[in-house]
Amino acid sequence: MILRLRPSAASQIALFLKEAPQVTPHMKEVRNANLDYRRNYYIQKRISDQRKWYSTKAAWNRRREALWFAVAWLLELLAAIAAITVVILQNSLIDPVGIISAAGAGVLFWLNARSYKEPAESYGVVANELELQRNYAINVDTEQKLSRLVLDTEGIMNREQKIWLARL
Prior knowledge:
81% of the residues lie in helices and 0% in strands. It contains 7 helices and no strands. The longest helix is centred in the middle third of the chain and has 54 residues, at 35-88.
C-alpha cells in the first residue's frame, strides 16, 4: 500500500532487503497452525505489539508538546522579568527583552509548525482502537471471525498510515 502511494520509498526499502523469500518458513508454520494458536499469535505479535508502538508514539508527542510549551512560557516569563529589570535599572546598557521575546515567539512558531498535538491524538486513537480489537480478539472462535478481526485490525493501521502519508 505504502509503495503504491510513495513509489520513491521502494528504492529505500530495497536497500534493506536480503535475498530471502517474502513468505518465510515461520510464516507458513503459523499459517498452518490451529485457530487458537493463530488467534493468540496475532493478538500477541501484531495487535499488542502495534498497540504498544502507537501508545509510545502518542506519549512521546504529548511530552514534546508539553516540553516546547513550557519552554515558550519560560521565555515569555524571562522577557517579562527582563522588561521589569530594564524599567527599574533605567541606565542598563543592554535590553534583552526583544531577544527573549523573539526566542519565545520562535518556540511558539516551532510548536505550531511541528504540531505534536495532532499526532499524539491520532496515535492515541489508534492505540485505543487496537485495545478494543484485542479485547474482541480474545473471543474469536471461528475462521470467519479471525479473518474479520485481521481485516478490521489491519484496516485501522492502514487508515493511520494514509493519514501519516498525507502529512508528508
